[in-house]
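Thread amino acids onto this structure.
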């Protein structure tokens, strides 16, 4: 006799037919699938560096020099990565202060330098950080922090900002002695959380961090905080939002789909 035909079985490679046989669903694009791990950058993305402005006004006579200091600090850290001479983030901050002072023709007092680097551990969160993190916690992905700050500094930062409990893990690029945007920190997140790099989404307010995550095979969401812009020519993140609330909502929508 003829073999029984099972209507519920279907061939995933079969094409559609007029009689309405079931078709294989189209494979979902990675950008349509929620990330399993969401990794947040800390400085400027979650925490507000404007709290340092009074120190820069006192030490340099100009609070507007704070972004220039941060850029100089990043340059020192990145130069260390490119030349193979590791410079941790806190050391880069201190050295950048001395360079900025030399450029201004002054000597920064040790007390002022210490006040700036120590306050990096006591920065306030951006107002959109706690509600965005709470929204993500209800959506299901594992939420972690990934920062270039040394781990002890990062832990102190998040505790002081009263958001440490929102994170399953706090990862520091200092643990692998390779600062972002080198690939090792992003890969560390994937390895330690037991997922692939493509299942990790970085959330950051820095174009260089976004570029690093994408080059490492991760996904990315860019927080377009005032003055923060993306590289117009490089690889682009799949999510761009004006604040963390918008970013979180976009990720939640993916989790529901």
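Threaded sequence (257 positions):
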């Amino acid at each position: 006799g003829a073999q029984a035909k099972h209507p519920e079985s279907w061939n995933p490679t079969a094409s559609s037919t007029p009689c309405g046989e079931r078709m294989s669903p189209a494979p979902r694009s990675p950008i349509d699938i929620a990330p399993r791990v969401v990794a947040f950058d800390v400085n400027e993305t979650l925490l507000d560096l404007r709290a340092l402005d009074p120190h820069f006004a006192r030490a340099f006579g100009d609070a507007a020099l704070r972004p220039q200091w941060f850029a100089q600090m990043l340059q020192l850290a990145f130069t260390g990565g490119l030349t193979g001479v590791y410079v941790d983030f806190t050391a880069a901050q201190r050295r950048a202060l001395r360079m900025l002072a030399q450029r201004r023709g002054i000597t920064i007092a040790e007390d002022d330098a210490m006040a700036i680097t120590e306050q990096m551990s006591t920065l306030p969160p951006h107002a959109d950080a706690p509600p965005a993190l709470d929204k993500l916690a209800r959506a299901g992905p594992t939420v972690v922090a990934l920062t270039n700050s040394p781990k002890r500094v990062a832990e102190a930062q998040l505790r002081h900002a009263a958001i440490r409990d929102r994170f399953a893990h706090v990862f520091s690029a200092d643990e692998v002695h390779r600062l972002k945007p080198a690939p090792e920190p992003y890969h560390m997140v994937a390895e330690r959380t037991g997922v692939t790099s493509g299942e990790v989404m970085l959330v950051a307010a820095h174009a260089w961090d976004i570029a690093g995550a994408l080059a490492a095979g991760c996904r990315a969401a860019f927080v377009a905080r005032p003055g923060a812009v993306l590289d117009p020519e490089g690889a682009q993140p799949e999510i761009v939002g004006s604040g963390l609330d918008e970013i979180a909502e976009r990720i939640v929508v993916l989790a529901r789909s």
